[in-house]
Amino acid sequence: MNKILNEIIGLKVNEAISGGGAGSILKIKLGNGTHFMIYTEWRIEKEGKIIVTSYDSIDPDEGLIPQKIKELSGKEIEKVELTQQNDLMLHFSQGYLLHVFSLVSYSDTSYIGHNWEYNIPDKNLSLVVDRNFELKVEGYDE
After folding, report:
1. How do residues 21-54 score in pLDDT, each as one tens digit?
2. How far is residue 27's CA from residue 32's CA, in Å, rounded to a whole number?
3. Which residues neighbour 136 within 8 Å (Cβ) at sequence distance 6 or greater?
4. Residues whose CB is less than 8 angstroms from the CB of residue 110 and which lie 6 or more positions away in sequence, other chains included
5. How much is the pTM?
């Protein structure tokens, strides 16, 4: 599975979307037609300083999330890391880091979704971290 994630090294972000009606859900579209969907908590750092988190304002006009998330557009992915708990870290050019915290837990029975996904539509493939903190391969489902 790390092989699949390592294939995105060198790709650029076409678009990063969050805030407004989507709340803090984060979608990162890559240059090869794939995308990440982040449903759990996250933060973005630039050169070691936090610039925005999933807890910041989602207001579409003045919110920090929609303003700052755009900074990822055009950045190149330089490194991908997974922790033992399947937290995701995407290192981008110009010192940007997206850190995704897998916090949606098996004890949260009201939520049956994923912590995060990496979707590859043309291969009908998704890498997902489920609420049991397990990294799995599933079929892509829009």
Report:
1. 888 999 999 999 999 999 989 999 999 999 999 9
2. 15
3. 127, 128, 129, 130
4. none
5. 0.92
